[in-house]
Amino acid sequence: MEKLKNYINGQWIDSTSESTLKVLNPATQEVLALVPEGNGADVALAAEAAHQGFQEWRATPVSKRVQYLFKLKTLLENNLDDIARTIVLESGKTFVEAKAEMVRAIENVENACGVPTLIQGEFSEDIAKGIDEYMIRQPLGVCACIAPFNFPGMITFWFLPYALACGNSYIIKPSEKVPLTMTKIVTLMEQLDLPKGVLNLVQGGREVVDALLEHPVIKGISFVGSSAVAKYVYSKGAAHGKRVQAQGGAKNPVIVLPDADIDMTTQIVIDSVYGCAGQRCLAASTIVTVGEHKEFTESLVESTKSRKTGFGLDSDVLMGPVITAESKNRVKHLIDKGLHEGGRLLVDGRDPRIEGYENGNFIQPTIIEDIPLNGELAATEIFGPVLSLVHINTVDEAIRFINGGKYGNMACIFTSSGLNARKFRHEAEAGNIGINIGVAAPVAQFPFSGWKESFYGDLHGQGKHAVEFFTQTKVVIERWLKEWTRKF
Ligand code: NAD
């Protein structure tokens, strides 16, 4: 059984940690590899290598740095299917979903190729007589990304290409549940011939996270994961003087007004709820109908029942398993909790039998109706293929319900009324808003804007925010007087 290694200073080396975890295929429980739990000594080695690598990298002109990214784009495109297959094997999503996530990753590489322009400073001539003032952007130094399991390839790319283009060196800490994808990508990236120490990968879990948060040469931390850990990473990172951006969990509501197009809305909502088996931070979770809803509810039920669940590499499969057996139990427990609170099952996917994959962590698409708006299920991130359906009388009440929630990652509305859409856009408390859109995922040039407990920090991932995050501003005030000029 392969034991994964760390990539430090341009070499694959064994972790100094003896303990390992199993990387499992969620559709079969087959052991794919062993991943070291990692420790502070691994992080110290990576941090030192990255610190050395930074000295050369920051002195490399930005126009040269982005040449590596142009090559990276082609490398990822040429290996898209291979990377996607690895994503399917370790995360359980479908091949189409896995390819789609890598397309989003590549978009960020493309966008970061624009850093020579995005990193430009500002200049004011004559702020006083004979004095000019300007601002330049310089890299932070060593930065690191701590990633979640649900997008094994994409999420690191919300940060990595910008960090490198801006002149930082980097340490990747993939989720210990899905370490194979980034291991494969870093193996491919060896072909870029980056200077040693510029790119590093440390495998592991909590101990590695703590060491990254504590190590003095690490200046910036980008975290994506659950809110409890995001808050922990944000406060501990700040306590150690680091710049931190920490994206957390979500509970995304979608309002459907009676004037929405039923067929289109059904299709989009169903894809949003059940895509990636509901394990997306932008998965629609609570569907809130306003006013008349009978026809829409029937349409949701019909579409939910027809969604094929199975192994992500099999044809026609639209939804895979959830990540672990514990996740499956947790989701089932939450459904039971909703029933206990007074909800009703319209579609029950709790105990499916998927032929040939009896050991997989499968839950089939499930709809639970009429859970109490102030209950536990309505407030809890499920992270599984469960649609909670609630009915409310007015748009104002629906917006009040949304704004009462603790998360603020995404909120969507389906309507043909521009006025209601505009009111929603203005009043809904979420960082990513969808209007007749089911997954309001910002493209690479926009920030991934979570609010409330979905984000801790200031500057988000992607786009200009990433360039600001990975640079520090230096303001120079300069005086040159005529009187000092020597005659030649
Ligand atoms: P997680 O919080 O369990 O793990 C995320 C990372 O933190 C992993 O690398 C893990 O090794 C590390 N970690 C876990 N527990 C830790 C601890 N106690 N101390 C230190 N480090 C720890 O998240 P997950 O289950 O991998 O991912 C799912 C969560 O991520 C969901 O809540 C989802 O909404 C969220 N998510 C958010 C976004 C976003 O953009 N806001 C995107 C994707 C996923």
From TrEMBL:
Name a GO molecular-function annotation.
Answer: methylmalonate-semialdehyde dehydrogenase (acylating, NAD) activity
Name the keywords, alphabetized. NAD, Oxidoreductase
Pfam families, per database record: Aldedh
Keyword field contains NAD = yes
Q: What is its EC number?
A: 1.2.1.27
Q: Where is the Aldehyde dehydrogenase domain?
A: 12-476
Q: Which domain of life is it from?
A: Bacteria
Query: An example of a Gene Ontology BP annotation on this entry?
Result: L-valine catabolic process
Q: Matching NCBIfam families, A to Z?
A: MMSDH
Instruction: Write down what this protein is called.
Output: methylmalonate-semialdehyde dehydrogenase (CoA acylating)
Query: Native species of this protein?
Result: Dyadobacter helix
